[in-house]
């Protein structure tokens, strides 16, 4: 009986997520909020920060239903990166504004913040709630419908400065939706908004590189199970690390984290 109740509640929550921004008025204010945010943050990144983007032309390979998979270093990576990466592609078509998957407890606090999160196409996830939680089911549906997703394969922000192991959840989304994965590596946002800080710092150097789609067809042929999902996540992380090396060769900078000195 308890299982039936939980299943019913999960179904009801998925239905509520499906209704977000579906009316013409809901889509209009969502589009306008996206547009304003994208323009303001893009200006901020190019005027008040020292931002460079390499191989943005690779975004032209992005297909409907693609999942953008960057490394994760600060709480507002989504806002800082969206404009520089997407460019006009993210402005001219509402469907190209990606859906994001923030942690519900951090970003859906109170009616006002929750409203903005809904309008910015955020689907809440609950850490530790498993692969069948409503947010995961909705993200898979959105990718299958041809929407663009923005998922951090590491799950949370890195605490060491290095790229962490990928989480199987991103592999599940890609496997079930048969989506394309577009890797991105970036460095410098951790200096704009370090963990524990709330006010962005100015005139920091930010380097971003976009990768080619990650080849996943061979993994899509494997059984639909956690081991396969994890293999997909691991391959994505390999490509993000390769992008870090490619960016280092382009700029001559070392993006590896400095080893901690024991005191």
Structural key phrases:
263 residues; Glycerol-3-phosphate (1)-acyltransferase
Task: List the topology elements.
Elements: H1 2-18, H2 24-47, E1 50-54, E2 67-70, H3 77-86, H4 89-92, E3 99-100, H5 104-107, H6 110-119, H7 134-144, E4 149-150, H8 168-177, E5 181-187, H9 189-192, E6 205-210, H10 217-220, H11 226-251
Parallel strand pairs: 1-6, 2-4, 2-5, 3-4
Antiparallel strand pairs: 5-6
Helix pairs in contact: 1-7, 2-3, 7-8, 8-11
Q: Can you give a write-up of this model?
A:
The protein is α/β, with parallel strands linked by helices. It contains eleven helices and six strands. It has one domain: 3-Layer(aba) Sandwich (Glycerol-3-phosphate (1)-acyltransferase). Helices cover 47% and strands 10% of the residues. The protein has a six-stranded mixed sheet with strand order 1-6-5-2-4-3, with helices on both faces. The longest helix is centred in the last third of the chain and has 26 residues. It is globular. The chain starts with a helix and ends in a 12-residue tail after the last helix.
Mean pLDDT comes to: 91
Question: Mind telling me the C-alpha Rg?
Answer: 18 Å
Helix share, percent: 40-55%
Query: Which word captures the global form?
Result: globular
- CATH class type: Alpha Beta
Instruction: Give me the CATH superfamily.
Output: Glycerol-3-phosphate (1)-acyltransferase
- What structural class is derived from the secondary structure elements? alpha/beta
State the CATH architecture. Answer: 3-Layer(aba) Sandwich
- Give the tally of structural domains: 1
The overall strand count is 6
Strand content: 5-15%
The arrangement of helices and strands along the chain is HHEEHHEHHHEHEHEHH
Largest β sheet strand count, sense and barrel closure: 6 strands, mixed
End-to-end Cα distance: 56 Å
């Amino acid at each position: 009986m308890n299982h039936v109740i939980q299943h019913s509640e999960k179904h009801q929550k998925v239905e509520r997520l499906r209704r977000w921004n579906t009316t013409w008025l809901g889509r209009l204010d969502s589009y306008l909020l996206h547009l304003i945010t994208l323009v303001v943050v893009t200006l901020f990144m190019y005027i008040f920060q020292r931002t460079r983007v390499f191989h943005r032309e690779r975004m032209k390979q992005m297909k409907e239903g693609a999942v953008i998979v960057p490394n994760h270093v600060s709480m507002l990576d989504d806002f800082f990166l969206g404009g520089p990466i997407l460019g006009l592609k993210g402005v001219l078509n509402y469907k190209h504004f990606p859906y994001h998957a923030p942690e519900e407890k951090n970003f859906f606090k109170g009616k006002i913040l929750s409203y903005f999160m809904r309008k910015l196409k955020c689907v809440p996830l609950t850490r530790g709630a498993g692969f069948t939680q409503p947010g995961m089911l909705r993200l898979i549906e959105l990718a299958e419908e041809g929407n663009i997703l923005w998922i951090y394969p590491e799950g949370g922000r890195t605490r060491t400065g290095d790229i962490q192991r990928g989480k199987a959840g991103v592999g599940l989304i890609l496997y079930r939706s048969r989506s394309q994965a577009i890797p991105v590596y970036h460095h410098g946002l951790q200096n704009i908004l370090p963990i524990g800080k709330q006010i962005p710092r100015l005139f920091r150097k930010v380097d971003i590189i976009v990768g080619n789609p990650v080849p996943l067809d061979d993994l899509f042929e494997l059984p639909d199970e956690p081991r396969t999902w994890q293999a997909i996540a691991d391959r994505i992380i390999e490509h993000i690390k390769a992008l870090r090396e490619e960016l280092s060769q382009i700029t001559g900078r070392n993006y590896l984290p400095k080893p901690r000195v024991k005191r």
